[in-house]
Known about the structure:
There is one protein chain. This protein is α/β, with parallel strands linked by helices. The protein has a single domain (4-285), classed as Metallo-beta-lactamase, Chain A (4-Layer Sandwich), CATH 3.60.15. 22% of the residues lie in helices and 30% in strands. The protein contains seven helices and 19 strands. It has an eight-stranded mixed beta sheet with strand order 8-5-4-3-2-1-18-19. It has a seven-stranded mixed beta sheet with strand order 9-10-13-14-15-16-17, with helices on one face. The longest helix is centred in the last third of the chain and has 14 residues, at 225-238. It starts with a strand and ends with a strand. The model has no long low-confidence stretch (mean pLDDT 95). One fe (ii) ion binds at residues 26, 71, 73-74, 191, 217, 248-249.
Amino acid sequence: MLNKKIVCVVNDTVLPESGLKSEHGLSMWIEGPQGVALWDSGGSGEVLRHNLKALGLDPGRIQALALSHAHDDHTGGLDYLLQVNPDLPVYAHPDIFQPRFSRKNGEYRSMGLPERCAVLKNAPNLRLNDLPILLMPGLWTSGKIRERKELEGRSANHFIRMDEDWHADPYRDDMSLILEVSGGIILICGCCHAGLLNTLRQVKQRFNQPVKAVLGGTHLISADGAAVRHVIRVLKDEFPGTCYYLNHCSGEDVIQRMEEAFVGCVKRFPAGTWLEINEDGLFYCK
Ligand SMILES: [Fe+2]
Ligand SMILES: [Fe+2]
């Protein structure tokens, strides 16, 4: 199998002295022999453009954009990407157009797509689907995470508006990516609002391959101590040998707990770090 590479382009933290800009958001460059896909677009076109340039990554090479969910820290660079390539295929869950809100001090503010609805709805290659879709050989969307028996990656301040009332966001649009690699698969998360264990179990059932690594935001930031202990116990039981490259909304405390539980198998994944993948394994680079 030829080399593949996953580069963190936008994140809340960046590699020191990298010249990259940080912002609350996420975007990752996924490159293989078949081409380049971008996972999420960060929180703004400005930071996405700056970081791509600083990393020497040409946005004109992106052949597919997949959006993990509607939140503006993942969709903020959409306008920029569609300016660079108006015909860019964009993959997302059909529920991505549902307006989202965050609540602070009793006030609700839009944090979904509304101001970008037009640009996305008019994208000529918009591909909405709640089933797993092949973006390019070896790279799939997870599709909708249907069974959610385990803890979801929730925030008490995320809402949707329905029947003239506020309701907790069901995060129906939340998806992850699956990259097939030598000897298994890699799970690439956005915020993983659907829940890390729920997502991993569905992916394991569908692909029936060892999960070599989990990358991205896992939204365990709001989980209490008992919940984190449970997640770690299940990960050990059901996903032995998995490595974790965590960033965005994973939560620093949780990353430290994971480091203690999975010694040598947990890394932070700020913007400017990347993972090289070949038939000999996975190699963390910075
Ligand atoms: Fe989110
Ligand atoms: Fe996020």
